[in-house]
Amino acid sequence: MEAKAQAKYxxxxxxxxxxxxxxxxxxxxxxxxxxxxxAPQAAAETVRKLLESAMSNAxxxxxxxxxxxxxxxxxxxxxxxxxxxxxxxxxxxxxxxxNQILKRTSHITIIVGDEVAGSKKGRTR
Length: 125
What we know:
alpha+beta
């Protein structure tokens, strides 16, 4: 059974978020939560919360379908970071000039699934 969680308009650059997401791609969900809890990157907290949400969604889907749910068999099947809208701001500079500041946003998606689906696409650790 697969479950998905998305976080849209997250105020972190996609490049920084991809760095964190690439680190946990294909891992067991429980292990990935532990890795993200102690990762020094700022995006790690957002990705961890999103992963916990996807795990909770999987539990809900299994309960509704009447299937057995084992949290230890969950793997990160697919995860990616898309670029959201960019907020444009102006910073005053010398002699009446102005610089443009780009505040980038991200759309982060995590899909978790059982061990069978995770072993097809994920890497082994």
